[in-house]
Amino acid sequence: MDRYAKQRLVGYLARGATALVVSVMLFVVGVTIFRGARILLTNPSIVVTPPGTQYMLRAEGGFLHAIVGSIFIVIPATIVSMTLAVSTAVYLQSDYSSERFSDLTNMFLNVLWGTPPIVYGVFVLTIIFATGARQSLLFGIIAIAIFQYPIMTRYTDEALRSAPDTVKEASYGLGSTRFETAQMTVRSALPGVIAGVIMGFARGIGDAATVLFTAGRSTNMPAGPMDGATTLPILIYENATSPNDELVAQAYAASFLLIVAVLALIGISKVLAGRFARYAPGGRHS
Amino acid sequence: MAESTESTESSRTRGRLSTRLRRERISSVWFTVAGCFAIGIFVLIVVTMVYQSLPLLQEFSVAQMVTSSNWNPGENQFGFLPAIVGTVYVSILTMAMGTPIAILTAIYLAEYAEGRMKTLVGTFIDVLAAIPSVIFGLVALLVVVPFVGNYLAPAFGSSATGQGIFTVSLVMSIIVTPFMISLSVESLEALPDELRETSLGVGATKWETIRTVLLRAAGPGIFSAVLLGFGRVFGATIVPAMLIGSQTQIPDSPFATGQTLPTLIVNDFGELMSLPLTQSALIFVGVMLLVVVWLFNFSAMLIRRRLKRRWQY
After folding, report:
1. Which of B18, B60, B72, B308 has its CA 20 to 30 A from that of B145?
2. Neighboring chain A residues of B21 at a CB cutoff of 8 Å
3. Nearest CA among B266, B124, B125 for reference residue B182
4. Domain boundaries, chain B
5. What structural domains does chain A harbor?
6. In the CATH scheme, what is the homologous superfamily, with its name and number, of domain B67-310?
7. What's the gap between Cα B21 and its chain centre?
8. What ipTM score was computed for the predicted complex, to two decimals?
9. Distance between start and end Cα atoms, chain B
10. Mean pLDDT value across chain B
11. To the nearest whole angstrom, how far is the Cα of B1 from the nearest Cα of chain A?
12. What's the whole-number mean pLDDT along residues B112-119?
């Protein structure tokens, strides 16, 4: 085979691999949306109906408990995690820490970033055992917040790092304090920061392993922060292997909601990133 | 009169300055706390989990547990070998299927695709990376499990239900590929265009440029992307739990059912939580996962540094 034939062959292979990846993605999204939408259209009430007492056996009622659980676990977790993550990134990128300490922290952040979610789940579970508490909504929030923290910090840190130094220099030159300068830096990197927070949110809403043992897999509506709860991914996981066809159908409906939520989040992050680009120097003015 | 205005003005500026400085000091304390949070939470996780697995480590030695294949927590037999073999089996099979596809797609995205096509494919891959893995598991139960059980496994002469090592690997390779793609594309795109121009300018074909110049220069990044992907497969929980069949045995073929370390935790936590030794054993599984993933991350970092020095351009 001469070198030009080889070049063509590699071109085909690269295109073929990409086509494969894209078609797999379209297939998975398509199957979920198609099946989920069909189930939701024939019986839309399952979204707003709380589960009955015999939910896991006879599929009484709907899965409102999982939707409520997802919302009340992931949103507070994201807020906590976002506060911490943005602060950590500011600490690492502004002039608060020495370079050596930043390097060390970055190493630990990388390790945390690669840590399997199940480890976070087990860690929070050991805390539950140690304190003698029960699995509940609150511990679900803690687990998801710990899980999201390294993801958000990584994105935010990268965004702040790519913010131009001129912002910082100009701000210091006008006599600002470090805090005020940090505010300006964060603002100039806002598109990246927001994208990072939304990516963390999307990962948090889709993760099951962290909340599997910490939120309590309950099949009732959560009554308070110390009550057991469940989230959409756990519901899908539990229902998927059930012999009851109606429960499997509800798993598809839940997947539909989850996929729509994730797609909407990606869309929102793109739109917001475009809108906040005007804070960045040289960004689009609107 | 003029004097008094001046003095109120200066006192006002001084007041504002002291507020600003107070704000600066308070925020500085907060940022330091947040900056130490990463190390703090890591240390806390390691200490708590090692402490909780001490009861098990006092009873049995690590070497003994890792090489024994008897897993029967009810009778205090903790052999982690089947789960370890299953995890390694799944990881290697996944990477064997996923890595070539990931690198080829990364080459396409970084070197071939242009304009609108590039944005479109890039967005698709972002979407694929953001889909929760539990959804892949659900779709795989509908599509992949019957396919493997009815067609693929019989074609290789083994009877199977469709759940097993191969099914998990196939689905995991779909999940981990976009992750590796985006990391590889990043390191390919960071290369300066002069490299491409020089190589093409002396008459190399596109493939020769990619193979001898670009893949080398981006090698450290791609290598660590693969290692990070490996770590991710290693700790994957939900998809294996749904698809592996969860039987604690050493798998004898790619289509056999098995167990991975994370599924061991998922399957045994529910009913055996009350036995303190079992609880300790499952937390020890978490420690093992942490150590392995830590090794992967650390070696990825070391290799990246070494290769960067050797494959300089």
Report:
1. B72
2. 177
3. B125
4. 2-59, 67-310
5. 44-279 (1.10.3720.10)
6. MetI-like (1.10.3720.10)
7. 43
8. 0.87
9. 72
10. 83
11. 30
12. 86
